[in-house]
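Translate sequence into C-alpha cells.
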Amino acid sequence: MFTEDDLLPLSGLQHLAFCERQWALIHLEQVWAENVLTAEGRIMHEQTHDDQTETRGDIRIVRGLRIHSLRLGLVGMMDVVEFVKESRELNGSSRKAAIHLQGFDGWWGPIPVEYKRGRPKPDNCDEIQLCAQAFCLEEMLNVTIPSGALFYGRPRRRTEVVFDVALRQESEELASRLHELHRLGKTPPPVYSKKCHNCSLLDTCKPKVMGARSTTSRYIAKSLREMGISSPQKSGSDQ
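Result follows.
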C-alpha cells in the first residue's frame, strides 16, 4: 500500500505504455510540447472535466470525478463515470458490481468512460489507462467493475472495454513499472520507431539522432572491451 504522498499521476500510464522515454521526459524532466493532436485532446478533456452531474433516465452521469488507488499508488481524474440503475433487485455476488447512490433508490453499477480525440490506437495504451481508472473506482467504492468504455472522436463511436484477467495484469505490472522508473529517476535512451512521428516530443527527443549516438557509443565501448582496453572515463573538465 502506498501513502498519499507516493501517488503518481494515473495519466502517466498511457505515456509509459506508449514509450518509457516519453513518460520520463514529461514526468521526470517536465518537458511538454503541444501539437494538433494534443491540443484537440486537451480541449476535449476540458469539456468533460467540468465537475457536473446529471441524470438521464436510469443513468446518473458524473464528470470530473477525482480518483485514487493506494494499492497501485495512482491518482487522477475521470472524464465520466456513468452509474447505470439495475433493472432488477440484486443479491449475493451480483451486489459486488453495484452500489447505492445517496438520494436515489435501487442499485447502480459504475461504468468508467474515457474520451479520446482520435481513432482507436494499434496498441492498448488507452485500454490500460481505462483499466487503471476502474481499479481506482473499485478500491474507492468497494465494487467489481467488469467493463468500461472508450469514446473516440474519429469516428464518433463508443467502444466497450472488458477488464479481463490479461488486461488487469498488464495494467498492474505497468503501474509497478511506473513507480520503479520514478524511483530510478533516469530518462531512458531513445529508441526510434514509426510511432515516434505521432509524438509531440519528437523534436525534443530526436530519436534518430540521439539513438544513433547511443548505438555508436555502445559499439565503441563493446569493441574496446573485446580488445581488452578500458573505456576512457569522462572527467569533470576537458583536458
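Note: The chain has a mean pLDDT of 82.
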